[in-house]
Design a protein that fits this description.
Length: about 100
């Protein structure tokens, strides 16, 4: 038996012991509700760099761009949205550390 097959078998036994039913499970990526649509977008280099700079140390510049666009649509000030995101990140860091 290969190590991969053994690992899968052990994981299956562990799941059964804990009462999980994976009989209808499928392998693959986790699909989140409200799945985002992959697109190609062209941005000015300085705009892209600004978003990347905002998430240095952790985070997703793509999520930040999405948040900025959503805030614009909802009429929120971008600066206030960034403040909210930073507050959320800091709160998460305080809980973790």
């Amino acid at each position: 038996m290969t190590s991969r097959k053994l690992k899968e078998e052990l994981e299956h036994e562990d799941a059964e012991r804990k009462g999980f039913d994976f009989t209808k499970a499928r392998r693959g990526p986790v699909i989140r509700p409200g799945k985002k649509v992959p697109i190609t977008i062209r941005l000015d280099p300085d705009v892209l760099q600004w978003f990347r700079d905002q998430v240095k140390g952790g985070g997703s510049y793509q999520a930040l761009i999405n948040d900025a666009l959503r805030a614009h649509i909802e009429g929120k000030d971008l600066d206030e949205r960034l403040r909210e995101a930073i507050r959320e990140e800091l709160a998460g860091l305080k809980k973790a550390g």
